[in-house]
Amino acid sequence: MAAQQVIVLLALASLAVASKPDCKELVKPLVLDSHSPIYGKWVLHVASWDDPGLKDDILSVNSSWLDVSASSESGVITIYWADRLNENKCLQGIANATISGMTSHTTYNINGHTSYHDGKYYETCSNCLLSEDTTLLPDGKSKGRYFFLFTRTGALEGSELETFKNQAECLKFPSEYHFTSKDLCPDGRATTSTGVKNTEKEQPEIEPNVQ
Ligand SMILES: *[C@@H]1O[C@H](CO)[C@@H](O)[C@H](O)[C@H]1NC(C)=O
Ligand SMILES: *[C@@H]1O[C@H](CO)[C@@H](O)[C@H](O)[C@H]1NC(C)=O
């Protein structure tokens, strides 16, 4: 009888293993260098988050896009971002990120407010950008993580979405997702500077994708 129980347990255990995503295979951090496939324009398709406190901020983002480029300084990349908020306002800015190994450290200055983000990038579909963004409080403590999947056009195959969900599960994100629209804000770089909103209406302080 005891032996039977063991066999049943073993069978259940192997079932559980079989149905679990292979996280080692699915979640491979990118070492960031000038050849990393992170450069160029990216349109956000879906976001996940792991802290309830981050939910309202991400839900207020209707669309988001980035332009990641190398800077003149080695180990520094430049991120231009433009978010459309649900009140139909565009918010945009430019930030420098310093790269060390597998992590990027970015300081965003938005309307005079500073926020800190540690980013990690992972292997993903071709023409996709997968990033895990930890928002840091001024004392260095984590406020929580976002998980973002960008693509070149904003479009994504169903199977690629399934992979994203499995990757999010591997990284212990709850299965809640925010799908963003492709109604992108215009590129404001020609006319405005860092952190300047290009609408006249007052709005709450919102960070790129987050608060
Ligand atoms: C974005 O805004 C459009 C137009 O107001 C709306 O139809 C759509 O549901 C919004 N999408 C998201 C993800 O907020
Ligand atoms: C980013 O770095 C470049 C080069 O060091 C500098 O000229 C620029 O002002 C920086 N931009 C921001 C937004 O900090």
From TrEMBL:
Q: Which InterPro entries match?
A: Calycin
Per the record, the major location class is secreted
Q: State the superkingdom.
A: Eukaryota
The signal peptide annotation in the UniProt record is 1-18
Question: Where's it found, cell-wise?
Answer: Secreted
GO cellular component, alphabetical, reads: extracellular region
The protein's UniProt keywords, in alphabetical order, are: Glycoprotein, Secreted, Signal
Location of the region described as Disordered in the Swiss-Prot/TrEMBL record? 186-211
Matches recorded under PANTHER family:
ALPHA-1-ACID GLYCOPROTEIN, ALPHA-1-ACID GLYCOPROTEIN 1
- Name of the protein: Uncharacterized LOC101479392
Q: Which organism is it from?
A: Maylandia zebra
